[in-house]
VWFA domain-containing protein (Branchiostoma floridae), 299 residues
Amino acid sequence: MSTNSLLCISAPLCSVQVDLVFVLDGTGSVGATNFERMKTFVQKMISDFELGPEATRIGVVVYSNRASLEISLDAFEDQESLQDAVAGIAYPGGYTLTGAAIDYTTTFAFSTRNGAREGVRKVAVILTDGVSYDDPAEPAQSMRKAAIITYAVGIGSNLDRDQLDVIAGVPDNLFVLDDFSMLDNLRTTLPTQVCDGYSSASSQECLDSPHLWCLSHLGKYEAACVLNFFQLVSFLSLAPPCRAVADIVFLVDGTGSVGLDNFERMKTFIRKVFAFLDIGENAVRVSIVQYAAQARTEF
């Protein structure tokens, strides 16, 4: 990262057990180009999840005035095959019956015969660009009564906010985007929420900088690049400790011009460096020498 000196590597895939179904708006108002953008978004989301019978299963429903299960939850167990299948989904056109599509997803896409697993968390991500001709309120409530978590993604300016609210159920599960080109923005938040979310770490000792926070993610603490309280950029995993064999000496200025506060900052910096070192007889050895008018070895 350019904002700090910490070395980071990509965060692990979401490996929790989730049955996840994307419900894509294929109506005439979406258009073929934007339908392709939705498919690309789903393909990118697939890359964030570990697939398999003991991990995540992903299905896809496409709807307009009728709904179709394009990919069942148990159809694929590897990312590449699933992404190829998404690429092959045809754009149907038609008018908008979101309520009927939600009913279809609940009863058919999340059925055990189509790969849904008993006792596994179930999530539906419903994307739409317009107003439904049928009322989605009752179907959305029935979906949640079936223990399916609903996320609503409204795209564009021709939206019915009341319909989106009832589909999402709770404000945190609603996303409104200006246009289809903004779908990529969801990849900073949606995979994390599907994987049980994250929370700020209060007591965990972290190597913080203004843009590097320590958050609980997928059951363990990880570094996260955060621009502000409302925008999570990405999760990062701190790189493993340095395994080299080395003798390192820190020469620390202890003169009066440094001052007590800055001297403490130097000590904090050294402690942070220690976190990345494998310290031991056959690894890294560290010494500190403090100097002013005279020098002395602290250890």
Notes: Residues 246-297 form one domain. The CA atoms of residues 155 and 240 lie 41 Å apart. The chain has seven helices and 14 strands.
